[in-house]
């Protein structure tokens, strides 16, 4: 039994949404300094979740639930364990500095308030995502992160590139989210549980379920799109169109890690199978290599970092996919380390851009003297990213090498991939953290100088945290890594971390190889760039262009479909409508073979036969009619005969209405015909007539068969008896039909007559649409109208 | 279509039909009839008058645009349901009152006003469509 979490947790998760509502007003009053009070919100959330650390590291989990849509088992429920606690701490902790940073970065921006709002919404969505227990709630927060990131990436909405990137991120991650929803529904179906905490206890049920493969693929679809795994990696670098605070947040703590979070979350129930340990490492490994290789090619600081994020996510997926204890530990450690150094480095990149006016690494140099604090932070974070001691990145790298090296299968392949990836990561780290600050001072668009405290507080804090986490490796292991690993493995685990490896081991040697390889590659960076550019140019086509082509194809197909379905030709509309109606009525009966029995032929009186004969004659006359007017009138004859039948069988109201409707439709049809200047005869070719005839016959047959089927059901007389009994005493009326219309179901009738009024207005509008030829000769028209008026006067 | 005979008789037919439509409307609560059928009859009357005498005279005879009649009908129908609110009953709960005029008891009820609303909506909407369609013929 899991103890209930305090109510405060719900408040903590929902607090960012409240802050989002306040932010614009705060900015209006305090300008960019609003960042200080606003940052208190994520800080308090951080403090709240830090309160869980003691319990969580002792192996406790907490749940809290509020009814949301109880009819569908959807509740606003939250589940706190090691995994969600660490994520919540990263989101709120880094979020605090991101808010501060955004205050400095967008200082004076006219939309700064709105930006804060979006940022808080994003934060709230992420917090909800990592703490949600109910699967549907989790999905809603999941999609909310897609929507809020759409707003953030497209923040600079006047630029086409921003809009494209935002749309791309939304389509890719939102589409993956739908796959995830399907996966969740299958999980609910397979386990009968709607809460993640309950699902986690039914691992064997799920793994042995026949639905395992679809569940696995659908969940993977969600996780891979969100965490930009190959071949969905293209949206993430494009998301760099967003302002830098967003990039820093997105990459360090939030959305892109959501996919990894999900994989780690479902690992106890979906992981460990052969499918899991093959698919994930393969795709993760490819993503790692693709990400680092593409990163090396870039010269834009943000893009370099963005591609390494893709690579890091690949590494995390790869490690999670191995399902081995040590590799999972490496994954958790690396995730923790990555959040700290990536957040810091992104903010550094933004600060350089903000203060020097360019992010192009080839145009930057010698900033060390102008921006000493930023440089210090960049150096610390860069060393952690490069995996050098004494930083948390180093410990992570050691542990993950332990993990890959010790694997039962594929150890060598995965280790080689990891070594190459890490070496290239070192190259990028050097490119971002060293290159802009050393060497000769270059001429930058702006005169570079140190930014305000708002801009350097975040990088300094995060990079120092990376150092402190390594120096106090034991505490880090016990408080953060151990509980999280327990969640991943589904059993309580303790982790002991050491900063200095006690003896020379394989991982240490691998580390040394990595560093050596990295340094060599860095020295040959320009040549490496050229080589990669050449290779990419020969490949040419990538998923990013593929995305554009898919989107363009969708637009083309829908345009073509619209041209066919809504070409503006009334005949097409009517044909489609009636063909669909006929198919809908006939197909179920044909497919199930459940035709109604042919009813016994009733005894008719002679005058009833006469009326039926008139109806049939009317129909034959319609078919044989030489002119349209004759056909319309013949149709009226048939209708009148049916109305007479209603009268004979005791439905005077119905027959009354039918008479009036038939009269009016003959009048209106005749008027329409003369108005449209149709030729008196139908000149269509025979083929077209046959098609129309078949459709008409199928609709007729469909209705007839359906009505026969319905009348053969036993008649439920409850309603008729009720109305017959109560019409007089309750509604003071003997005519049941009218009583129903104006009294029992008066509200329906009100709606119906409103529709009649609207239809009338619409028809009037249609009639008054002037065609081009009408507009061309208005003068003539008025004279004609005048003449007509004169004529009527004379006629009187 | 405007033969002399038709032109001569149309006004009388129209008047009779309109009268008949009132009759059908008001008897609707106990006998076959009601607002919808009555409205259709009146709309037919309007169409016949328009065909025989021309649309302009038909519009002049109506004084207001038929669509305004429909709008008024909709308003009347909606408002008739409001009366029940004064008695703290749900919207559209029917209310009945008996009034004695010259010794004859006349039942007044909200369903009746509602039905009159339906009648006006049908006359107005169908009539305006018919008149608008006829209009082109005359110019």
Indicate the topology:
The complex is a heterodimer of chains A (796) and B (139).
Chain A: H1 8-30, H2 35-50, H3 53-57, E1 62-69, E2 74-80, H4 82-105, H5 112-131, H6 135-153, H7 160-191, H8 196-199, H9 203-208, H10 212-226, H11 235-238, H12 244-252, H13 255-270, H14 274-297, H15 301-322, H16 325-356, H17 372-386, H18 392-405, H19 411-433, H20 453-471, H21 473-489, H22 506-523, H23 525-539, H24 543-565, H25 570-592, H26 606-624, H27 628-648, H28 652-675, H29 686-711, H30 718-731, H31 736-744, H32 746-768, H33 772-776, H34 778-795
Antiparallel strand pairs in A: 1-2
Helix pairs in contact in A: 1-2, 1-5, 2-4, 4-5, 4-12, 4-16, 4-20, 4-21, 5-6, 6-7, 7-10, 10-13, 12-16, 13-15, 14-15, 14-19, 14-23, 15-16, 15-19, 16-17, 16-18, 16-20, 16-21, 17-19, 17-20, 18-19, 18-20, 18-22, 19-22, 20-21, 25-29, 26-27, 27-28, 30-31, 31-32
Chain B: H1 4-27, H2 35-53, H3 55-62, H4 66-80, E1 96-101, E2 104-109, H5 110-138
Antiparallel strand pairs in B: 1-2
Helix pairs in contact in B: 1-2, 2-3, 2-5, 3-5, 4-5
How many β-strand runs of chain B? 2
- Kindly estimate the percentage of residues of chain A that lie in beta strands according to DSSP: under 5%
Rg on CA atoms of chain A, Å:
36 Å
Which spans of chain A of ≥5 residues are poorly predicted at pLDDT below 50?
775-785, 789-796
Helix content of chain A: over 70%
Q: Give the integer mean of the pLDDT values of chain B.
A: 87
SS elements, strand count of chain A: 2
Mean pLDDT of chain A: 86
The profile of the biggest β sheet of chain A is: 2 strands, antiparallel
Instruction: Give a quick account of the main beta sheet of chain B: strands, pairing sense, barrel closure.
Output: 2 strands, antiparallel
Numbering strands along the chain, what is their spatial order in the largest sheet of chain B?
1-2
What's the overall geometry of chain B? elongated
The oligomeric state is heterodimer
């Amino acid at each position: 039994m899991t103890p209930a979490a305090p109510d405060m947790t719900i408040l903590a998760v929902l607090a960012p949404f409240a802050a989002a509502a306040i932010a614009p007003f705060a900015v209006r009053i305090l300008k960019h300094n609003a960042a200080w009070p606003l940052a208190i919100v994520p800080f308090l959330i951080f403090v709240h979740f830090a309160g869980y650390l003691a319990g969580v590291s002792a192996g406790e989990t907490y749940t809290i639930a509020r009814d949301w849509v109880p009819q569908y088992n959807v509740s606003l429920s939250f589940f706190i364990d090691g995994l969600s606690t660490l994520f919540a701490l990263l989101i709120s902790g880094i979020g605090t500095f991101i808010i501060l940073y955004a205050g400095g970065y967008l200082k004076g921006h006219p939309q700064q308030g709105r930006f804060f709002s979006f940022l808080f919404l994003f934060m709230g969505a992420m917090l909800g995502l990592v703490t949600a227990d109910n699967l549907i709630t989790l999905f809603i927060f999941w999609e909310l992160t897609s929507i809020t990131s759409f707003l953030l990436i497209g923040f600079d909405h006047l630029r086409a590139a921003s809009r494209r990137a935002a749309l791309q991120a939304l389509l890719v991650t939102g589409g993956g989210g739908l796959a995830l929803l399907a996966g969740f529904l299958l999980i609910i179906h397979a386990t009968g549980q709607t809460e993640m905490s309950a699902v986690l206890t039914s691992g064997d049920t799920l793994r042995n379920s026949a639905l395992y493969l679809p569940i696995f693929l659908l969940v993977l679809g969600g996780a891979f799109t969100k965490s930009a795994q190959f071949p969905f990696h293209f949206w993430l670098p494009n998301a760099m169109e967003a302002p830098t605070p967003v990039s820093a947040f997105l990459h360090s703590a939030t959305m892109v890690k959501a996919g990894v979070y999900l994989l780690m979350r479902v690992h106890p129930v979906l992981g460990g199978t052969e499918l899991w340990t093959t698919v994930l490492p393969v795709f993760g490994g490819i993503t790692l290599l693709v990400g680092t290789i593409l990163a090396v090619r870039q010269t834009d600081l943000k893009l370099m970092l963005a591609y390494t994020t893709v690579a890091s996510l690949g590494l995390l997926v790869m490690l999670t996919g191995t399902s081995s204890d040590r590799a999972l530990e490496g994954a958790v450690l690396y995730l923790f380390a990555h959040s700290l150094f990536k957040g810091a480095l992104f903010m550094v990149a933004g600060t350089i851009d903000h203060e020097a006016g360019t992010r192009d690494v080839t145009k930057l140099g010698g900033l060390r003297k102008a921006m000493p604090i930023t440089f210090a932070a960049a150096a610390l974070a860069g060393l952690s990213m490069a995996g050098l001691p004494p930083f948390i990145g180093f410990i992570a790298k050691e542990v993950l090498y332990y993990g890959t090296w010790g694997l039962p299968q594929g150890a060598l392949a995965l280790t080689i991939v990891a070594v190459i990836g890490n070496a290239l990561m070192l190259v990028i780290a050097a490119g971002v953290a060293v290159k802009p600050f050393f060497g000769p001072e270059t001429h930058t668009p702006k005169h570079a100088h140190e930014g305000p405290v708002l801009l350097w507080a975040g990088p300094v804090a995060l990079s120092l945290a990376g150092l402190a986490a390594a120096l106090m490796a034991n505490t880090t292991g016990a408080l953060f890594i151990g509980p999280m690993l327990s969640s991943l493995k589904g059993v309580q685990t303790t982790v002991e971390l050491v900063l200095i490896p006690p003896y020379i081991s394989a991982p240490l040697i691998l580390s040394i190889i990595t560093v050596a390889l990295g340094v060599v590659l860095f020295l040959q960076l320009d040549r490496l760039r050229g080589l990669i550019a050449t290779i990419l140019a020969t490949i040419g086509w990538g998923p990013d262009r593929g995305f554009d082509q898919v989107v363009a194809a969708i637009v083309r197909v829908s345009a073509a479909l619209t041209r066919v379905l809504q070409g503006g030709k009334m005949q097409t509309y009517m044909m489609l409508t009636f063909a669909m109606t006929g198919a809908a009525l006939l197909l179920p009966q044909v497919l199930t073979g459940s035709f109604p029995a042919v009813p016994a032929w009733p005894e008719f009186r002679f005058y009833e036969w006469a009326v039926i004969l008139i109806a049939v004659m009317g129909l034959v006359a319609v078919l044989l009619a030489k002119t349209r007017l004759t056909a319309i009138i013949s149709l009226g004859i048939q209708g009148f005969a049916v109305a007479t039948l209603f009268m004979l069988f005791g439905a005077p109201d119905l027959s009354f209405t039918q008479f009036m409707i038939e009269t009016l439709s003959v009048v209106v049809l005749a008027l329409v015909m003369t108005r449209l200047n149709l030729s008196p005869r139908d000149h269509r070719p025979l083929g077209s007539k046959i098609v129309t005839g078949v459709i008409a016959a199928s609709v007729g047959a469909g209705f007839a068969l359906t009505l026969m089927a319905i009348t053969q059901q036993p008649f439920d007389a409850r309603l008729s008896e009720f109305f017959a009994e109560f019409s007089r005493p309750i509604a003071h009326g003997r005519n049941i039909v009218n009583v129903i219309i104006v009294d029992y179901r008066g509200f329906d009738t009100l709606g119906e007559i409103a529709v009649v009024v609207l239809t009338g207005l619409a028809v009037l509008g249609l009639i008054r649409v002037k065609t081009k030829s009408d507009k061309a000769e208005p003068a003539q028209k008025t004279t004609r109208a005048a003449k007509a008026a004169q004529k009527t006067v004379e006629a009187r | 279509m405007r033969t002399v005979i038709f032109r001569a008789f149309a006004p009388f037919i129209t008047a009779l039909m309109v009268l008949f439509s009132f009759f059908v409307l008001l008897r609707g609560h106990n006998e076959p009839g009601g607002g919808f059928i009555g409205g259709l009859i009146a709309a037919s009357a309007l169409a016949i008058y328009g065909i025989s005498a021309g649309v302009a005279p038909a519009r002049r005879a109506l004084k207001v645009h038929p669509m305004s009649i429909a709008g008024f009908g909709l308003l009347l129908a909606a408002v008739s349901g409001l009366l029940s609110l004064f008695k703290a009953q749900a919207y559209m709960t029917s209310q009945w009152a008996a009034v004695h005029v010259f010794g004859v008891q006349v039942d007044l009820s909200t369903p009746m006003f509602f039905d009159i609303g339906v009648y006006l909506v049908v006359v107005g909407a169908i009539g305006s469509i018919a008149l608008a369609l006829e209009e082109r013929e005359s110019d």
